[in-house]
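Weekly modeling sync, notes
Attendees: S.R. (lead), two postdocs, one rotation student

Agenda item 3: backlog of single-chain predictions. S.R. asked that every request posted to the team notebook include the full sequence so nobody has to chase files. The rotation student volunteered to paste the first one in as an example of the format we agreed on. Action items at the bottom.

Example entry:
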Amino acid sequence: MITDVELQLHAYDCVGTPFLWGGRDIRDGMDCVGILLYVLNKVGIRLDYATTNRAYCTNLLEDKFDKHLNPVDVTPRPGDIGLFWVKARSNVQHCGLYTERGLVHGYIAARQIVLEPVPIRWQESLHRVYAVPSVVRTLRSEVYTVSR
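Predicted structure, as returned to the notebook:
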């Protein structure tokens, strides 16, 4: 049994990890995709995923999530995964894991994995929300934190 708390705790483990494009290792560095692969791996969901082409990378990620996770049409809740559009692009360019305290994601400007209140720019560019299958929801709150 996987709980939303467990997903969040694994995401919190990544905070402070150096940002490294294409990185998948919590010690050496990871990017936003690396966080999600790390968290999913920790709860027994292994996605075969490796690429360095950014556009292909994000489209492939969405395809994999469509097959292995549950797309949901609700406000993101703690433990959910968000895929985000970036303006002037035609595909998903960013992802993160929602927690009670905000969004865990790779932030290139900070050069590390961060936990921050969900920025307006990401709320406005939210493309799709995924729930991990068989997650027991122990938290009743929705992610509602906003930063300006």
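Discussion: group reviewed the output briefly. The chain has one domain: 2-136.
Action items: rotation student to repeat for the remaining queue; S.R. to check formatting next week.
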